[in-house]
Amino acid sequence: MSTKREQIVNAALRLFYQRGFNATGVDAVIAEARVSKKTLYNHFRTKDELILATLRKRDELFRNNLMRETERKASTPIARLSALFDTIGDWFREKSFSGCMFINAAAEFSDHDNPSHQLAAQHKKLVCDYIEGIAEEAGAADPKALAYELNLLIEGAIVYAHVMGDKDAARRAKEMAQVHISRQL
Amino acid sequence: MSTKREQIVNAALRLFYQRGFNATGVDAVIAEARVSKKTLYNHFRTKDELILATLRKRDELFRNNLMRETERKASTPIARLSALFDTIGDWFREKSFSGCMFINAAAEFSDHDNPSHQLAAQHKKLVCDYIEGIAEEAGAADPKALAYELNLLIEGAIVYAHVMGDKDAARRAKEMAQVHISRQL
DNA sequence: AGAAAGATAGACCGATCTGTTTACCTTTGT
DNA sequence: ACAAAGGTAAACAGATCGGTCTATCTTTCT
Predict the structure, then answer these.
(1) pLDDT of residue A4
(2) Fewer C-beta within 10 Å: chain B N or C terminus?
(3) What is the pLDDT of residue A2?
(4) A117-121: which pairs have CB atoms within 8 A and are 24 or more residues apart?
(5) Contacts of B160 in chain A (CB under 8 A)
(6) CA distances from A146 to B45, B148, B163 (A)
(7) Residues of chain B with confidence (pLDDT) below 50
(8) Distance CA B91, CA B99 (A)
(9) In the predicted model, what is the mean pLDDT of residues A81-90?
(10) pTM, whole model, 2 decimals?
(11) What is the pLDDT of residue B4?
(12) Which chain B residues are within 8 Å of A163, Cβ to Cβ?
């Protein structure tokens, strides 16, 4: 149906991720999407709404990929807890990698009440919930605590990979994760 | 001597940190600094140069505070490795806390070759070097590896504290850190 | 066939952006 | 006392910002 809307969001996904939200004008988005400005503003009331729609799409794509890849790499819950770090390691090595779009959003929209910032917080929680589910299946003593720990290691690795360009961060984080996983099993 | 320059950088430190780099215009900086636009451009050739000078100042202030506070809180190297997390916990609880200015800079200046991004990477390395020094004094088996691990936990905690508003992140990271510290001693 | 819906390119709006310039004022060293 | 240095406020330049609007074209439903 609304393929124009998808074109716009797909263009926004690329541009906002690579260049940032404030640095990307709507003119750049419509040029990348090959769409007129009127069309963009027919689908989104403001740029802020486009940003929110783009972040929602990113959340969906990112978590779907995280789940699919992690479950493809490992078949047991315990192995999947480790495989999470292999999946993010693959992500770090993509040529388009520019950090976590939600960390980036929180950086630009620093106010915690900002809708984009809240969406970022929600995304992180959903990822954490997913990990908690695996930790439960794996029989962790305290799945919530283990998910928190693994997620914190993931965030640390993302920062290392983006800020310092450390493509090995996922492997190092994985080794640390093994320690915390084995303490719970 | 150059007190005007300091006024400008101090104003820029507040505004760039709270509102972001692209979202803060030079007009806002000169208003906050109570200085004319001419004066700003006498001291800095471009806004980008002001950003770089501001990041350099932030690096100096941040690391000095990290060292001073951590050394004040604990007198032995081993205790200091833990105290690092208390220091960042205090930071998280400041009302002006808006995440790590260098993570924020890397988010807005995503290109790794961007001078601001490179300064961010350098800052992270200097913090890691400081921790490595303590790890050495503490007699860690592999000080470089331990510093890497603790720094990764710190980055994870910063993300949690900023994106999710989790003021407890430093304590949780500290508990994780204890595990990795004790494995090396 | 013909009306309604939705697309197009692009002119246009007022505001804001970085950066320059003008004209004047204040401080300071000799 | 006086020139030089460095400060001020504000006008200005040209580009870009988010957002609106017009006039035209294409598609689709009945």
Answers:
(1) 84
(2) N
(3) 67
(4) A117/B163, A119/A52, A119/A55, A119/A56, A119/A59, A120/A55, A120/B163, A121/B163, A121/B164, A121/B165
(5) 124, 152, 155
(6) 50, 21, 19
(7) 1
(8) 9
(9) 98
(10) 0.96
(11) 86
(12) 102-103, 106, 117, 120-121, 124
